[in-house]
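Weekly sync, protein design subgroup
Attendees: M.S., D.O., the rotation student, P.L. (late)

Item 1: inverse folding check
M.S. brought a backbone from last month's batch and wanted to see whether the design step gives back something sensible before we order anything. D.O. pointed out we never logged the input encoding, so this time it goes straight into the notes. Structure tokens as presented (401 positions):
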């Protein structure tokens, strides 16, 4: 299915989840969540019938005109049972909090919020300011005094790297031709790095990004206890071994039993394997299929919500509001961390290349090459549907083993 041009996601997931679509997308009539259906799903005081909305998103994604609004719910920024007034209060509280955080950052580095950003180091590792003689406006770009606070030093040391990533973000797209737009992205990433220094490297875009990162933060944490991508690769190995033992055996013989060739797919959720438009579409399908109505309350209670594992659903009514994939996880008691939909999406991709891998792959380089050829040539909805089938097959076979 062909879709129109969009603004870019970035060079990695941290950049990627911030950018929203602003141009017209070619949609399939009758399947996409339209603005009319979206607005009709709200009661008079603002309660949202999210089960009805999810069914539509899982069929055909979201119309560009309402993506930002719907993503706030999909990512757990709001409770569907909240009213318009509830959300207005939450929105204002978040804006106030963001303003405070941004002011803290600006006091340390004045360039934040100025419409510009940095791509060179601004302090040394011991907190001494670095003045770039080639910069005509040096005082705007750099800190004037030495810094002693450890958190502040750690944060300032990564600001130029964030700037370099912003500059590399899909440079062929019109949106990123503007330094002002690049600076907006840099501001959000810089403030996030200040708030979540465990990961390191508006206002509503910031909170969507915050929720997305709470789902994905384990992928980016450098810790011995981090379960992130490595655990997902381990699960992927078990899934393929269970549903396609012949393919798994062949990969093991090629010394690929750890499935490291799939690392990038899981790390940035197929941003490089799909076109930009289809990557957005894929994420919407994923978020809808993984949706759990308890996400909002859990995220509000803990800044590391995903570390708690399964989001329990206590009633049949709540279960109806879960996405297709999450509903099965809840029924079987599977951990969201251990059986993320992304794992089964990778399994789906591998299955589409099963015959070629078995016939042509004589080494891991061949596997990598075969998978590289799929870039920009995958159908998001088809891959999702196949992933759900593999998930069901895996649960069924694993139960009998």
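Designed sequence read out in the meeting:
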């Amino acid at each position: 299915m062909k879709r129109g041009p969009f603004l870019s996601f970035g060079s990695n997931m941290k950049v990627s989840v911030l950018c929203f679509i602003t141009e017209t997308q070619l949609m399939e009539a009758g399947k996409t969540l339209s603005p009319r259906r979206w607005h009709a799903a709200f009661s008079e005081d603002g309660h949202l019938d999210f089960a009805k909305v999810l069914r539509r998103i899982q069929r055909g994604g979201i119309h560009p005109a309402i993506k930002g609004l719907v993503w706030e719910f999909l990512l757990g920024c709001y409770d569907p049972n909240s009213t318009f007034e509830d959300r207005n209060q939450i929105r204002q509280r978040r804006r106030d909090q963001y303003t405070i955080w941004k002011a803290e950052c600006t006091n340390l580095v004045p360039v934040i919020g100025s419409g510009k950003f940095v791509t060179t180091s601004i302090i040394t590792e011991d907190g001494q300011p670095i003045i770039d003689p080639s910069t005509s406006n040096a005082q705007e770009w750099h800190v004037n005094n030495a810094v002693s606070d450890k958190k502040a030093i750690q944060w300032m040391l990564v600001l130029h790297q964030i700037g370099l990533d912003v500059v590399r973000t899909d440079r062929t797209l019109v949106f990123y031709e503007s330094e002002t737009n690049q600076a907006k992205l840099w501001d959000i990433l810089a403030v996030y790095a200040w708030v979540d220094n465990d990961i390191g490297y508006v206002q509503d875009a910031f909170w969507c990004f915050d929720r997305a990162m709470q789902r994905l933060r384990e992928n980016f944490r450098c810790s011995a206890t981090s379960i992130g991508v490595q655990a997902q690769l381990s699960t992927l190995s078990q899934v393929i071994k269970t549903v396609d033992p012949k393919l798994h055996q062949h990969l093991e013989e090629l010394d690929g039993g750890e499935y490291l060739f799939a690392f990038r797919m899981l790390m940035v959720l197929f941003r490089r394997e799909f076109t930009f438009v289809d990557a957005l579409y894929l994420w919407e399908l994923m978020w809808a299929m993984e949706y759990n109505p308890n996400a909002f309350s859990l995220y509000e209670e803990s800044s590391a919500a995903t570390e708690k594992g399964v989001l329990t659903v206590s009633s049949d009514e709540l279960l109806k509001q879960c996405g297709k994939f999450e509903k099965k996880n809840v029924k079987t008691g599977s951990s969201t961390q251990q059986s993320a939909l992304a794992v089964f999406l990778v399994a789906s991709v591998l299955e589409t290349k099963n015959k070629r891998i078995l016939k042509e792959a004589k080494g891991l380089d061949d596997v990598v090459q075969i998978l590289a050829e799929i870039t920009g040539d995958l159908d998001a909805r088809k891959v999702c549907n196949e992933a759900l089938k593999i998930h069901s097959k895996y649960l069924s076979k694993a139960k009998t083993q």
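Discussion: Residues 1-17, 19-26, 136-140, 303-310 have pLDDT under 50 and may be disordered. The longest helix spans residues 84-108.
Action: P.L. to compare against the previous round before Friday.
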